[in-house]
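Reproducibility note. Readers wishing to regenerate the assembly model reported in the main text can use the exact inputs given here. Chain order matters: entities are listed in the order in which they were concatenated for prediction.
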Amino acid sequence: VARFLEDFNVGDSFDSAGHTVTAHESEAFARAYDPQPFHLDEESAKRSIFRGLTASGWLTAAVTMRLTVDAGMLRETGIIGMGIDDLRWLAPVRPGDTLRVRGEVVEKIRREGDSKRGTLRVLLHTINQDGVVVMSEIANVIVPVKP
Amino acid sequence: VARFLEDFNVGDSFDSAGHTVTAHESEAFARAYDPQPFHLDEESAKRSIFRGLTASGWLTAAVTMRLTVDAGMLRETGIIGMGIDDLRWLAPVRPGDTLRVRGEVVEKIRREGDSKRGTLRVLLHTINQDGVVVMSEIANVIVPVKP
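Running the prediction on these inputs yields the following C-alpha cells for the assembly.
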C-alpha cells in the first residue's frame, strides 16, 4: 500500500533492523568510492586521527538509506529524497560494527501552489551496537498528497 | 605532500576528472543500498516521477566523494569529513551519465581554543555530460594547521 502526506504526523517514528558492516564491505566500498589510506590500510589507519581502520562516512550514509528503505515507513510510495540537511559523522564506524537507524518526523511542509505533494523532514540517527550515535542527518522527502 | 589550513583560501577551486555511472554500477549500488523499484526495474521506473531508471542519489554522493579524493585537493592530508550541509539532488542521474565535480572553498574557519585544526567549507557541484548540475552540497572538512 502507498502512503500519503496525510498518513504522517510530526513525532511519528520508526526503528530499523540492524546491519553489520563487515571488513569486506568496508574495504570494497572504500576501494570504489573513498580510497583513502585510513579506510584501506591497517598501518596507515593506526597513525591517523581514527587510530584504526574506519568505514567511509559515505558507507554509513548508504547503510542508513538501506535500513530506512527496509524499515518500510513509506511503503510503496517510495522514498524520493530532495536532499539532506545537517549530516554529521559523530563517531567512527569500525569493521564489525552493527548499525541501526531511528527515524522521527520532525516537520511536515505544504507549499502554497503545490496541491499534489508536500515534504516530510525526517531526523535520522544511525546508532551502533553500543548505543553510540555515529551519524545524524535530516532527510527531506517528497510525499504525495492523497489523490 | 600534506596540505594545511594555511595552504587554502576562500575562492580556491578544483575540477575533477569524469566518472561514467554504468547501468551495472547503478544496479549493484541500488541492490545493496537503495533497493527501490525506480532504481532497479525499467517498467516501474517508467511509471515513477523519474520516467525511467535513475541512479540512487547516494551513489551520486559516493561518486562525488571518489572524484573529490582523486582530484587531490587535500593531497596526503586526507579528507576528514565532519559533515555535509545542504545536500540537494537537483536532477536525475541516468545510467550512462558521466559525472564530474567542481569544488570551491567558500569558508575557512578557526575556532578559539583549537590551535591544531580548522574547518574548510567546500561547495561541491556534481555536473553531468550536458553541464546540468545534478547534485550540490557543502562539505565541512577538518584540516590541520601547520605544526
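We highlight two features of this model. The first helix of chain B runs from residue 23 to 33. The CA atoms of residues 16 and 70 of chain B lie 7 Å apart.
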